[in-house]
Amino acid sequence: METIEVTRHDGVVTLMLNRPTKKNAATIQLWTELGDALREIAGRADDRVVIITGAGGEFCAGADLWEPPTGGPPQHRLASMRTLGDVALALYRLPQPSIAKVRGVAVGAGCNLAFGCDLVVAGSTARFSEIFSRRGLTLDFGGSWVLARRVGLHVAKEIAFFGDMLSASQAQQFGLVNRVLDDADLDAFVDAWAARLVASPPIALAQTKRLLNNSMNVTMEQALDDESAAQTVNFATRDTAEAIAAFVEKREPTFEGR
User: Fold this and answer.
1) Predicted pLDDT of residue 54
2) Fewer CB within 10 Å: C terminus or N terminus of the chain?
3) pLDDT exceeds cutoff 70 at 68
């Protein structure tokens, strides 16, 4: 891949947006490569956690509005937007937990890439903006779906209408960010969270993620039915048996995703 750097270590996959001279502004190539990486990860049992971050001290400056022509026939705008939507769906459907590790700017689609992750950890230099209205545009990369669910409708409208730049602490106050740390402490904290998730039961985590993602789209009765089905699957796994045995034997469990 040319615009995404993929590294793997002890069950943790790090996807680094790698256009530092452009503050990792996203081209169609970057979105395509990111989508391909996410779909590959989704099918790999040995990939247990995904970290998304950016190179050069920035997360993502949104879409590269100055992207040069590819030399081929021009792509229909609707088709290019659907490419973007496919990546947002790949991130949403990813069975593994995802963590956005944010330094510097996260604006536009880059902002929603961060908010689309399951967990968002920001450094003190992080800045977030749904900048679309200032560019004559509307929310994309799932922002119209994610934002209201994170902060409520009226706050979402404030953030989207004005497109103001939010500091990391302001984003945390709105409930958009899980943790804010000094930039120097960011890597160690995210690594520790990722290690805890790697050590967790992957089947149970995937089902918990699915239940929570669906929670605002189903009735209480449907949620209870889904919980019952998920627990039935869990009780049939080796991991649940291992967890019970480890509890009885007063030791830490070892989960294999089976």
Assistant:
1) 98
2) C
3) no
Identify whether the C-beta of residue 159 lies closer than 8 Å to the C-beta of residue 130. yes
- Per-residue pLDDT, averaged over 148-161, amounts to 96
- CA-based torsion, 230, 236, 237, 240: positive or negative: positive
Angle of helix 77-93 relative to helix 28-42, nearest 10 degrees, comes to 30
Would strands 119-123 and 179-181 be described as parallel, antiparallel, or unpaired? parallel
Residue 232 has pLDDT above 80, yes or no: yes
3-state secondary structure of 233: helix
* Exposure b/e, 207-226, CB count within 10 A at least 16 = b: bbbeeeeeeeeeeeeeeeeb
Alpha helices in 94-152 (DSSP H): 109-115, 143-151
Q: Is the pTM of this model over 0.85?
A: yes
pLDDT attached to residue 81 = 83
**What residues have CB less than 8 Å from 168, skipping those under 6 apart?**
102, 122, 123, 124, 125, 126, 127, 128, 177, 180
**Amino acid code (one letter) for 193:** W
- Domains assigned to the chain: 4-198 (3.90.226.10), 202-249 (1.10.12)
Instruction: Taking residues 230-256, report their average pLDDT.
Output: 96
